[in-house]
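Can't attach files on this board, so I'm pasting raw text. These are the components:
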Amino acid sequence: MSLFGKIFKTGIITERFDAYSDAEMNQVGAELRRVVDRRFSGNLVIRQVDPGSCNGCELEINALGNGFYDIERYGISFAASPRHADVLLVTGPVARHMQAALLATYEATPDPKWVVAVGDCAVNAGEFGQTYASCGAVEQVIPVDLVIPGCPPTPLSLMKGLLKLAGQ
Amino acid sequence: MENTTLRSRFQWLPELQTSLVYRDISLKEIINDGLQPARLFEVAHQHWGADLAHEVKQMNFRFVALWVEDGEDSFTLTACLEKQADYILLRCFVPGEIAEAPSFTPYFPAADRMERHATDLFGIRFPDHPDPRRWTRHQAWSERQFPLRKNFPVSGTPLPLTPPDHNYPFIGAQGNGVYEIPVGPVHAGTIEPGHFRFLAVGETVLNLEEHLGYVHKGIEKIAEGRDPQGLARLAGRVSGDATVAHAWAACMAMENAAGITVPARAVFLRAIFAERERIANHLGDIGGICNDVGFAFANYQFSRLREIWQRDNYAWFGHRFLMDAVVPGGVAKNIDEKIVDAMRSALLRLRGELDELRPILENNGSLQDRLVTAGYLSQELAQAFACVGYMARASGVDYDVRRDAPYPPYDAFPTKAVCSADGDVAARLHVRYEDIYAALDLLERLLASLPRQREILAAWHVPPAGAEGIGILESWRGELLCHVRFGENNRIARYYPRDPSVLNWPSLEKLIHNNIVPDFPLCNKSVNASYSGQDL
Ligand code: SF4
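---
Top answer:
Structure tokens for the assembled complex are below.
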């Protein structure tokens, strides 16, 4: 099969967001687009920071970019630098070796900014707790505006969390 | 399959013993069923080191792992080596006062980071180690504190703010036009943190140094005192992308220590989970590799296939990564006929899609142009660094635990492991693509002969204090080893997981030589070593 053949055969797989959610979700979805348009000039930019995760949460955040979720269609994109970001998506417990780097990233993010703690580890230190090597939950190091629990949270719950944040 | 006959059953042992006798070293075998398939030999402390290392090196052993345990008044040092798919454990006791031992690193570069890890966490010094720099220790504890010693409290004595590790002595270079590029620890993409220091001339990489340890979160320490279920949960989070493999290795080690036989159906289900994990990761990485050279089409296709695969995991097992599916004594999830049928058709569908996609990748000139010859790792280097998994096999080192040192259920299912001599990114992609096909074959065969008994969990019985076990298996990244020792009352006294990444990371420093800096993400993705799995 040729490249173009495969593209045509695959077709558009992007799911309508109401495919497996309720009316409330659609309302938040519509609200999200509106809020992103109004408050973020159409583009909410995320910088993801991993100060200690097991990499499970990263894989699910990455999945937001696959064709099924295609998070960019809501005006949400990921940036390489915190200086371009509105939101820090922080995963994992904060390893003490990453404490300074997380703080520097936070400080480099221009105001107004929001911090979302993603995954049980980021929310409450999860399986790793607070130890000689781990500061524990993200809020021990930087202020947190929203939490998205799960180990790891599914792409769907990540999207629900972001909808909530932007709709706040 | 003929390859399983490679197994020599320790035919080389008399030769090793003879050569050691010439050097006045005796190996005292300790019979310990928990450590099977490896055999355990004690060596006197004064014989640990040059002579011993020299002999095992002469006999072409591969260095597998080295770990330390804190005894009452001495430290136990255990090195694992492999030859012809037979594993030996060499062990010596280091008196606590001195806490010094000769290094294996001058003979086995693969021992480098494991010895430095032992120095940073136990305070065992290796005076003849060629690289005295710290490794896992940054600034979270001082040079005189050793977190894995029993008298070190798990909470430590942390400062309110741990300073950044700004003064690590990287290798430098001087000369016209040589410059340094520091990258990380916070990377530009959605990936784990670590630091890379490049020395470059123009666009060409002269040298790369990795500085890892940023996500060290004390996994070995917090394992202590857990019960078996608790350890399995923790093991499943050593590296999230290898949750099945780590949980299985930890359970295997604990079951070996406790002498527990896992029900046949559970053994099959573990392999089904492990092969599903292998496929999911390869699908994601193949897309990622292509994406790193701007071939977005493949990224869309392979991330689509991965998503479908993970949704099936969720539908059938309740978790997209199969976390906590492997538990001590068996598995937590069973499957019924409906799932077996659904999985079978999903296997067929994926196979069809892969058949369609393969020629598209192979015939795409601009893709191949970027992948062929990029990130070349020679067979000599792959061997010198004791690389495992697809890293090794793409450089012509043909080893797969499932095939060569098979454990149930793989002992009943000859496994195909594809090898390539090319050593470049294209070869690693090819080997991974073939790995998926081999895993699909395995899944079909496992489903076809799934034992009918319904039990999936063996009763647990408490092992005696001091009981130890190891688990060695082929994770999607390659050979994974785990050692467990029990203390009193079913509690874990020591847990050491050696992720394949520990062995594969150093080769990235080599294969990037003479590539251009912009090809680093591509080379890195083709290796895809775990940070969390190596930092622990
Ligand atoms: S929440 Fe779970 S998946 Fe996320 S970093 Fe923690 S252990 Fe890993």
